[in-house]
Amino acid sequence: xxxxxxxxxxRFFDKSMHDLIVEKTLLEAxxxxxxxxxELKLYYQPQxxxxxxxxxxxxxxxxxxxxVYGIVSPLKFIPLAExxxxxxxxxxxxxxxxxxxCQGLYVxxxxxxxxxxxxxxxxxxxxxxxxxxxxxxxxxxxxPEYLELEITESVLMEQxxxxxxxxxxxxxxGVRIALDDFGSGYSSLTYLKKLPITALKIDxxxxxDITFGDTNTAITGSIIELAHEMGxxxxxxxxxxxxxxxxLKQKDCDMIQGYFISPPLAAEEFTAKLRE
Length: 276
Ligand code: C2E
Ligand code: MG
Ligand code: MG
Ligand code: MG
Description:
Layout: H1 2-12, H2 15-34, E1 40-49, E2 54-66, E3 70-72, H3 74-84, H4 86-107, E4 114-118, H5 121-124, H6 129-140, E5 147-152, H7 160-173, E6 176-182, H8 189-192, E7 199-202, H9 204-208, H10 215-229, E8 233-237, H11 242-250, E9 255-257, E10 265-266, H12 267-275
Parallel strand pairs: 2-4, 4-5, 5-6, 6-7, 7-8, 8-9
Antiparallel strand pairs: 1-2, 1-9, 1-10, 2-3
Helix pairs in contact: 2-3, 3-4, 4-6, 6-7
């Protein structure tokens, strides 16, 4: 009967599950206001060329400074933003902000760096994604070669052919494409050949494990070698120690990013560091 099933339903949604749903709904409502209320902020983490020992670019990393929750990690709100479609507005803001910051540095005489921007699959599958990138570049004046889009392997699971075509179009514009978190998913090096990418970012889980003589360490070395054979720029992320740094240098890794060099910095801090 309705009464019995009602009871079951009530039992099923015990208090903690009910709380979770309320919490998520509130989080979503507050996230919806984050862009108009200017609560989102980009942090910038240097990407350094190991051969010349110089910063050549930065990755833009999103932070949400919520008046209710404090600083919220992207690991917590990006999945919700993707699930609700809010990532479309958020991602557009990120792209504009990062390109404008990058071009602003150049115009201000602080160097010609590139901006690496994380792109979610939900953004990429929008019909107008390529046009959006073109518009943002035109609007901010950033030359396409100074924009790198970071995509993850999962991006390529959905609507594979369509996404490849879009990435090829972006490549023709001059925009660079990096495959982020490589090694954390399922893609093989042979599958990489099908992708119109210019760089490979080795997942920090591999970098974490680097100690001379370890198997994962050897894997990292092989990834670098094979990626080079395919003409890709190799970026190691999450580099924290001297040991990791030395190993990567010995293996000819092109770029490094991580606390060993610098944590992600707020725009003001980043600019101040450039002036040093
Ligand atoms: P990701 O793109 O792989 O970014 C690298 C993450 O490693 C960042 O975490 C960064 O702060 C962190 N990291 C940097 N150096 C080190 C290090 O030496 N050691 C360790 N342990 N970690 C380091 P963060 O900023 O929390 O971002 C997490 C993820 O959230 C990013 O992973 C990315 O997938 C996503 N994300 C961040 N910003 C955006 C965005 O604007 N759009 C989208 N779609 N995703 C974003
Ligand atoms: Mg990234
Ligand atoms: Mg990564
Ligand atoms: Mg990641």
